[in-house]
Structure formats: C-alpha cells, structure tokens
Amino acid sequence: MVLKKYNINPDLALERQKCTFDIEEIINIFDGGKEKTSQRRKIEDVVLKSGLCHDDVPEECMSLKERYENAVRKSCFFSKLMKTELQEITGIEDFETPAIRRIADALFKDISPFLLHLGMFVPTIIGQCTSEQLMIWLPKALDLQIIGGYAQTELGHGTFIRGLETTATYDADTEEFVLHTPTLTAHKWWAGGLGKTINHCIVVAQLYTKGVCYGTHLFMVQIRDLDTHMPLPGIKVGEIGPRMGFSSADNGFLGFNNFRIPRNNMLMKHAQVQKDGTYVKPARHGKLTYQTMVFVRVTLVNEAAFNLSKAVTIAVRYSAVRRQSEMRPNEPEPQILDYPTQQHKLFIGIATAHAFQLTANWLWNTFKSVLSDMKKGDVGTLPELHALSSCLKAVCTSDAALLIEQCRYACGGHGYMLSSNLPYIYSFVAATRTYEGDYTILLLQTARFLVKAWEQAEAGKTVTPTVSYISRSLKGEKNSWRSTDEGIIKSFQAVAAGKIALCVKSIRDRMKSGLDYEDAWLLTTVQLVDAAEAHCRSVILETYCNEVRRLTKSSSDNVKIVMHQLVTLYLSYWTLQRTGDLLRYSSISEKDIDFMQRQYEELLQHIRPNAVALVDAFDLRDEILHSSLGAYDGRVYERLMEQAENNPMNAEPVNQSFHKYIKPLLQGKL
Ligand SMILES: CCCCCCCC/C=C\CCCCCCCCCCCCCCCC(=O)SCCNC(=O)CCNC(=O)[C@H](O)C(C)(C)COP(=O)(O)OP(=O)(O)OC[C@H]1O[C@@H](n2cnc3c(N)ncnc32)[C@H](O)[C@@H]1OP(=O)(O)O
Ligand SMILES: Cc1cc2nc3c(=O)[nH]c(=O)nc-3n(C[C@H](O)[C@H](O)[C@H](O)COP(=O)(O)OP(=O)(O)OC[C@H]3O[C@@H](n4cnc5c(N)ncnc54)[C@H](O)[C@@H]3O)c2cc1C
After folding, report:
1. How many H-runs (helices) and E-runs (strands) does the chain carry?
2. Please, what is the average pLDDT of the chain?
3. What is the reported pTM?
4. What is the pLDDT of residues 222-242, one digit of tens each?
5. Binding site annotation covers 33?
6. Boundaries of each Acyl-CoA oxidase C-alpha1 domain copy (predicted)?
7. Residue 255 φ then ψ, to 5°
8. Which atom of ligand 1 is nearest to the CA of 387?
9. Pocket lining: 251 vs ligand 2, CB cutoff 6 Å
10. How many Å lie between the centroid of ligand 2 and the Cα of residue 327?
C-alpha cells in the first residue's frame, strides 16, 4: 500500500517539542556511528524507492497462496536489487547485515520464503564445508543459482537431535550416501522454504558407514530439478499447512526413499567419510556440526531487540495520540501515555529494547572472537559461548514476546487489528521462543555449564569471566545491598550464585538418598531452569550497564542522562520483579524495596516527556513499521478508516451470502 501523507497529529508534534536530547545522537550510538547511520539510510532509500514494497491489496487481505506468491515475487526482486542496484547506486560494496535485515521488513510484513537461505543455508555452507566444497556451493548460493534451507527437525523429534531417524548410509561401491526416511516420524518437518521454494537443502541425518552409526551429520541435498522445479525421484516434499505466523515461509515436510547423493555431499569440514567408508571423527569438538544453531541463536537476540523496538514504537506513538477517560472531573481526556500504568507497560519495553540490542551486539562480538579462536584450533571458549547464546536466546526471545504482547494490550482494541502490525510482530517473536532450541531446553543447556562451573570453582580452578561471581560466592563473599548499578548487579549475581548452589546441593542430596545422577538431575530441572534464568538476568544487567557507560562516554550530557534513566529503570524494574529472590539471597531490606519502588515511579515521570523521542530514536520508517497505529505522523484514526474502506469485504454493498442464505432464512425458505 502507498502510505497517504498527512500533517503530523498535534499531540505528537507537541511531544517532539518536549524532547530534551538530540535523537540523532542516540540513533548513531545504536547504528555504530554517524557513517553507519548514513549508510543504512542510503540502503533504505534505495529499497523504498524501488517500488518493491508496494502491494495492490493489504497482505492480510490476500489468500495464503497469494501471500506466498507475493512474498516469492518480492524475495526474487529484492535479491536482484541486492546484487545489482543497491551496490551500483549506493556504491556500498559490503552490505551491513543489520541494514539489510531492517529494510527487509519493509517488503515482508510476514516472512520471506528465502529467510532460511540467508539465515541458515549460507551460514552452514560457510561453517561446515571443506574449502573445496565451499568453492562449489558458496558462489552458487550467494548468486542464488541454488536456493536452500535447513532440514533438521522431524515430525517426531525437534529438540533431541540425537534421536533423529533419517539415515544416510554410505555405499562404498558407488561412493554414495543413501538417504532414507524409515518411519512416519522420520519425515523432515518445519524447514522454512522447503514446502515450495527451495531446490537444495542441508539435511541432518544419522550417518552409517561400515555398519556403524556415527550420529547426526550434515548433507547437501538437491531436492528439486533446477529447471522444472519438480521434486526429484525418491523425494516426497510439500507444505505442512497453515500456522500461527510464518504464513509466507512455506515451512515444509520431506521424505526420502533410498535417495542417493555423492559422497562429497556430506559436509566434511569437521568429520569425514573416506572413499572406502572409513570414518574420521572431528579432531577438536564433538558438537561442531551444531555451529549454525549457535550462530542463529546469537542473531535471534538481535531479532528480539529489533522486533520489540518496532512494537514499542507503535504502542508509544499510539498512546500519545489516544485520549481516553478522565483524571479529574470535567477536565479534557488525557493522552493515555499520561497514565503511570501505561508508562509502566511501555517504558520497560524501550529500556529492554536497548538492553537487548546492546547485549546482542556484545554477544555477536563474543561469537566472532570464539570463531577466530576456533580458526586457530582453540575450542576452549566454545562451551561458554554455547551457554551464553543458549540462555540469552531463551530469555531475550521470551521477554520480547511478553513485552510485545504487552504493547498490544496497551493499544486496547485497535492493537488487535492486523493493520496495527502488532499481531504479526508477536507471532514472529513467539516462534523464536520455540525454534532454534526451545526455551526450557536451552536454559537446561546453560544450567549444565553453570553446575560444571560451580564444581570447577569448588575445586579451586579458575572459571570464565561471566561466572566469576561463583568463585566469589564460594569464597564466602557476603552480599550487601546497594541501590547503585554495580550494587544491583552484584545482588543479581548473588541470586544466581545462591540458586546454582541450591541446585548443586539438591542434586547431591538426591544422589546421597540413592538416586543416580540422571534422576537427581531430572528432579532438579525446575530449579536448574530457574538458576540459568537468574544467571542470564545478571549477564544482561551487567552488559547493558557496561555498554551504555562505554558508548555514551563522549555523548552530550542530555543523552547520557536519558540513556542512564533507562538503565536505572531497567534495574529498578527487575529488582521489583525479583524481590522474593533478592530477599532470600541478598541483604535487601523492605526499606530498600520501598525506595526502589519510589525510584521506579519517579523514573516513569522523568522519562515521560522523552518517550516519543526515545522511540523516534529507533529510527524505524513507516514502511518498516507497517502500522496504522504507529506511523510517524500519528494519524491513527485516518489510517484505521482508510484501511477499513480499502477492505475488499467492502467492495460490494451486499455480499452474495445474503441472497444465498440470509434472505432464505429470513423468509423461512432455507
Ligand atoms: C542472497 C540474497 C538472498 C535474498 C533474500 C531476501 C530475503 C531476506 C530476508 C531477510 C534478511 C535477513 C537475514 C538474516 C536474518 C537472521 C535471522 C535468522 C532467522 C532464522 C530462522 C530460523 C528458523 C528456525 C530454524 C530451526 O529451528 S533449525 C532447528 C533447530 N533445532 C534446535 O535448536 C534443536 C535444539 N536441540 C539441541 O540443540 C540439542 O539437541 C541439545 C539440546 C543441545 C542436546 O544435544 P545433545 O543431546 O547432542 O547434547 P547433550 O548430551 O545435551 O550435551 C553434550 C555436550 O555438548 C554440549 N553442546 C550441546 N550443544 C552444543 C553446541 N551447540 N555447541 C557447543 N557445545 C554444545 C553440551 O553443553 C554438553 O557439554 P558437556 O560439557 O556438558 O558435556
Ligand atoms: C516457525 C517455525 C519454524 C521452524 N523452522 C525450522 C527449520 O527451518 N528447520 C528445522 O529443522 N526446524 C525448524 N523448526 C523446528 C524447531 O526447531 C523445533 O520446533 C524446536 O526446536 C522445538 O522442538 P520440538 O518441536 O520437537 O519440541 P519438543 O521438544 O517436542 O517440545 C515440546 C515441549 O516438551 C518440552 N521438552 C522436550 N524435551 C524436554 C526435556 N529434555 N526436558 C524438559 N522438557 C522437554 C519442551 O520444553 C516443550 O515445552 C521450526 C519451528 C517453528 C515453530
């Protein structure tokens, strides 16, 4: 749809006049500098001017098939644009992924069927192929001569990868692998793009050679003819059916009937099968084939931040425009943003988007540093990265989904309209809590690491920096509550340490009472998930505080003030959310809690005048927001009426069902 131009709503205009800081400064901080902001905007301009974002009818009014076809059309033209015009027009050779990621949302209100190509297929080629394999597949994938996906999950197993049933049996006579789907539950299920779009796919299967099963490995498999796009003989493939979101992502199913692929199609960077069928196991670490999942978990923290920033921009702008009820008799109806309860729903969303964005950037740098260690043959930092990416993916996607839903509640009835875009944003982020490792499962992975770290620290060994608080706790360091940034972080670390200690004790007590380790662990898993979540909170709080301090060193005083107000809001919010834990594991008193409550409420008031400017500082163009409630001009009612009038249901004054059913019913002739 082409966005109509309106004058700025006067309430929003006034809000912007109240702003105390230069929003461009905050925009630059999050982009990584002025240069990066200008580069991102150039890319956005090119895409927006391309006409590709235009839909003749709103996406939500299309049938599922039309939506899919429309998304394919846009993905193809967008890919062409990325390869040609974007480079020519902007002169930027090396596209920054965040900029491409952001502007992709101007094209796709839902999901591009090519998402998995870029998000998992290409990264798996980069991370799992030998240099020879890389030379064959990477240029083709980048040039979109082949389009791929990632088929790991099966109908019967998603979480437990070791339980996957698809087999890849090596035939040394022909130097081929035979892929087979032995049961109903072994069918690949869910892979994005698999249903209708892709012609290649990374398949995760149990490797058998010389009669021995060596566990899951990755295989490059062509599933459709490159010319006709027909499934190849021996392949059964299709779309799994309508779902809560991801409507245009053609998630698919896939079965193999003794389907043969060349030996070289096993991705052999880490493990190999030689021509005679001899298996060579990975030299360094047993879980290197899980690397793409770690990569995606890292990027999902960024997704949580970005999508939350969209939702909170919509809800804050709407709340500045919407007037409802009265505070005092006979006074004009206030903007709903003036209600402290509304501020309580929304300002934490702004602070959380900042916290997650800065944590995502920090995690990305950690990921790059671990990759560089691994290139040098050192896998020592991998367990910590796995633990960090697991808990951060779990907690950030989960918190973001809750806060996005809260943004929808904050918009009352209009938030329920698809045209608000909040339901789309929610259904996308809700899925991120499950895919790429379910919330509970990933926290249990982190818990494994924490229990080990506890045991190491107990044995007097040095532990990694993110868990150094465990050593301090074991040395008997007592927590004394202070309501400063550092003081609060220390207390959250004391909570995490206290919870990990209790888990270790529970496991040991249960073992003393005769249980084996597995059962003792299993019965402690509720506490273990809780401990991993507490650890993750302390990591986010610490990273957020450190990063804001670092990034605002040379900022203007007013930017420092407002950014720090948000940090304090975030710390106060979580203190108040976790008073039970803090009373148990830190020296916080009831008086301290009263103080934190008052501080929190005062902060809501301090942030209020800057609220609209703070969401403007996410710099999200209307074309990216796709929202009747959240456009920059605040013309909410005009847009709601506009989209109602454009609803295809209103194209005819009387629907044919009146003549077919209602009239006969009215006349008793049905
Ligand atoms: C080119 C032009 C294109 C144009 C395109 C146009 C359109 C573009 C549009 C947008 C552009 C934007 C692009 C970028 C966007 C990025 C977003 C990306 C979105 C991607 C969408 C993804 C969709 C979803 C995909 C999926 O869901 S794939 C399936 C994922 N599945 C899972 O995650 C399964 C979870 N389960 C597991 O991971 C494992 O089973 C388990 C739970 C970890 C257990 O494994 P296992 O049983 O083998 O191990 P354990 O016994 O538990 O542990 C043994 C030890 O191993 C350690 N361990 C485990 N895992 C790891 C690991 N990963 N790394 C390191 N170590 C690991 C574990 O800790 C144990 O250690 P120990 O020391 O305790 O023994
Ligand atoms: C929109 C979407 C897109 C997807 N895209 C892809 C894709 O492109 N490629 C792909 O391969 N997969 C994809 N998936 C699949 C996804 O990765 C899995 O659904 C996910 O990993 C969860 O696995 P599951 O469905 O088997 O859940 P289950 O493991 O069956 O989980 C169900 C419940 O059981 C609990 N549970 C399971 N095991 C344990 C345990 N050991 N301890 C305690 N609790 C447990 C879980 O916590 C959860 O509450 C996608 C999924 C979705 C929703």
Report:
1. 26, 11
2. 96
3. 0.97
4. 999 999 999 999 999 999 999
5. no
6. 290-451
7. -130, 150
8. 69
9. yes
10. 47
